[in-house]
Write a structure and sequence with these properties.
single chain; alpha/beta; TIM Barrel; Immunoglobulin-like; 3 domains; eight-stranded mixed β-sheet
């Protein structure tokens, strides 16, 4: 007991002084309201959990799981509120809102079912190790999200990822308070979900014989790797992930692409296409001309598929794709042209609208809502459709003005398959573009061109990760992290409370160190570079890494930086030189991971 009292006193003084000096609570996403307190709560075997409802008990169990996995600490769940207790109560009408009050002997959590879970994520981020024990600084937080839809899309069709990897991504998403995983299950290059009525979808459509190497335009003709690629999730596996995510307050939104991106389906069931030909699951990327033919047999097939999909996924939204639909096969099809005439449609764009409206009617009859990429606006928007705007914001703005709900997902700010450095040669191969961390953070989902009433139709925001060039788990995580941490703050934190410098230099470093402890293969970001002048008058450069307790090695003569280069120990006094110099540096994390080599022109210091 005396040992615990001494630990409490030491921890109280250390943490109180630290928080008094910098006031930093490294929580991502940033809470709506935070008031620092005095002292610390000691988290140890004497701490117990008090859950006052079944939902609170489930949240407490998940919290216990995390404590055990990370700290080998398991707390007792009991109705006794005395002593060192964490008390969870369901309260309030807003499901995702919560209050969190930490004092020296109690932690009080109040909120809706999801809010209680999010409060625990905040508590987990507040835990610190001090002198071998666990402490939580005293604080009062009132928090709720800015947007109701906070999503990440993972394309598992171009490259397949295991159920374990998907659970790992779900865990990380939950930790940063996302609530939607958009699961892109079908593509030209692969079908990833068992459909019992159509077994050839997993026997044939789920596999391709080979995949191109390099970027799309690197080799003409294409060079293939000669390796069979594919895989699929059984319905039981999909249900397992749905439950796993739901326990963590994440809804999985399945996507079944139609009428385009359907070559893999037609390879197994060519009768649903407009051309009398043999189809193959392709191993190269880009937009393919094969699309569904709007025949009754096709609609029967799609309704059968969607019936099984809806039985697995309870999501309100069912995503039907609707993007990148080449019309050539419809233009050449006597059946399609006759249907255009019969339905008095203007053209093939009208036929696309007809196709999607029929699917929407079917989904609506089953109590579901259709969401699709912004091309579903072409030819006329289905009556109740929600638009996911990816080609910039124009589609989302148009839909919101028409009174339709919108999810903003512009490729300019939220396409996570884009390069993370200006010089793509310093990065693993990607589809193109340039999307650094700061640009993700800068995104504002409610366009100023919309009225306040129209902005209410913006349900939220989503980052998208297409996987043409992402064949491994490490690459998947490298492209997601840390950019989705920036996205989490865009989605959760009100715009007026966002500040990139505060996010990147004060809160991100601890979270990145934590991701490494969680075995997440994040990209090590470039350091913040600060130029100055020493008392001697010489120019200086300071390197401030975004990962806590990192080591930096550098050169200023343009030569390669590696672990044999100069060890950084503080601001560098630059040599006098008439020639432009280049700072090269690498960052080595506490876990031993080494960053890419980063380069900075020292001409910028003048």
């Amino acid at each position: 007991m005396l040992k615990r009292i001494v630990f409490v006193l030491i921890a109280w003084m250390a943490v109180s002084n630290a928080y008094a000096q910098n006031g930093v609570y490294s929580i991502i996403p940033k809470p709506a309201s935070l008031q620092p307190g005095k002292g610390v709560f000691i988290l140890d075997q004497q701490t117990h959990l008090v859950a006052k409802s079944d939902a609170a008990k489930r949240n407490a169990d998940l919290f216990n799981d995390f404590l055990w996995n990370r700290y080998k600490l398991k707390l007792t769940v009991t109705p006794d509120t005395s002593g060192n207790a964490i008390i969870i109560e369901e309260q309030g009408n807003e499901q995702e809102a919560y209050t969190l009050n930490v004092s020296t002997d109690k932690i009080s959590i109040k909120g809706g079912n999801s809010g209680g879970f999010y409060a625990f994520q905040t508590v987990l981020q507040l835990i610190e190790t001090q002198n071998g024990g666990l402490i939580i600084p005293a604080v009062s937080i009132a928090d709720k999200p800015a947007f109701g839809y906070r999503g990440v899309m993972i394309d598992v069709a171009r490259h397949f990822f295991s159920l374990d990897e998907m659970k790992k991504i779900v865990d990380a998403m939950a930790y940063f308070k996302f609530n939607r995983l958009h699961w892109h299950l079908t593509e030209d290059q692969g079908w990833r979900l068992e459909i019992k009525k159509y077994p050839k979808l997993t026997q044939l459509s789920a596999w391709r014989d080979s995949t191109i190497i390099g970027q799309y335009g690197d080799f003409k003709p294409f060079v293939y790797d000669g390796e069979k690629h594919g895989g699929y999730y059984t319905q039981d596996e999909a249900r397992e992930l749905v439950k796993y995510a739901a326990d963590r307050k994440i809804t999985i939104v399945p996507e079944i692409e139609l009428p385009g991106h359907s070559t893999a389906v037609l390879a197994a069931y060519p009768e649903f296409g407009c051309k009398d030909t043999t189809y193959h699951v392709p191993g190269y990327w880009g937009v393919h001309y094969s699309i569904f033919c709007p025949k009754e047999e096709t609609f029967k097939f799609l309704e059968d598929v969607l019936t099984e999909v809806m039985d697995i996924f309870p999501s309100e939204f069912i995503h039907i794709g609707g993007d990148e639909v080449p019309k050539e096969h419809w233009k050449e099809s006597a059946f399609a042209q006759k249907l255009i005439s019969k339905q008095k449609l203007k053209d093939e764009h009208g036929l696309q609208s007809y196709f999607i409206t029929r699917i929407e009617k079917f989904l609506n009859q089953h109590g579901r809502r259709l969401v699709g990429w912004d091309e579903i606006l072409e030819g006329g928007l289905a009556p109740n459709a929600t638009v996911m705007s990816w080609r910039g914001e124009a589609g989302g703005i148009a839909a919101a003005r028409m009174g339709h709900d919108v999810i903003m997902s512009p490729n300019s700010h939220l396409y996570l398959d884009h390069y993370q450095a200006k010089d793509g040669k310093t990065e693993p191969v990607a589809i193109g573009g340039f999307l650094p961390l700061e640009r993700v953070y800068s995104y504002h989902p409610k366009p100023d061109s919309l009225t306040a009433e129209q902005q209410k139709h913006v349900l939220g925001v989503q980052g998208n990760l297409w996987t043409e060039y992402i064949p491994t788990n490490n690459k998947l995580e490298y492209m997601l992290f840390p950019r989705i941490l920036a996205l989490s703050e865009v989605a959760w934190t009100e715009r007026a409370d966002q500040n990139y410098d505060d996010f990147s230099t004060k809160r991100l470093p601890l979270r990145l160190q934590e991701l490494e402890q969680m075995n997440v293969f994040y990209r090590i970001p470039e350091a913040k570079i600060r130029f100055g002048t020493a008392s001697s008058g010489r120019k200086t450069v300071e390197i401030i890494p975004f990962v806590n307790n990192s080591t930096i090695y550098y050169t200023v003569d343009g030569h390669k930086a590696d672990q044999a280069a100069t060890l950084y120990s503080g601001p560098i006094q630059l040599p006098y030189s008439a020639k432009p110099l280049t700072l090269n540096y690498i960052i080595v994390t506490p876990g031993g991971r080494i960053s890419n080599m980063f380069s900075v022109s020292l001409a910028d210091s003048k």
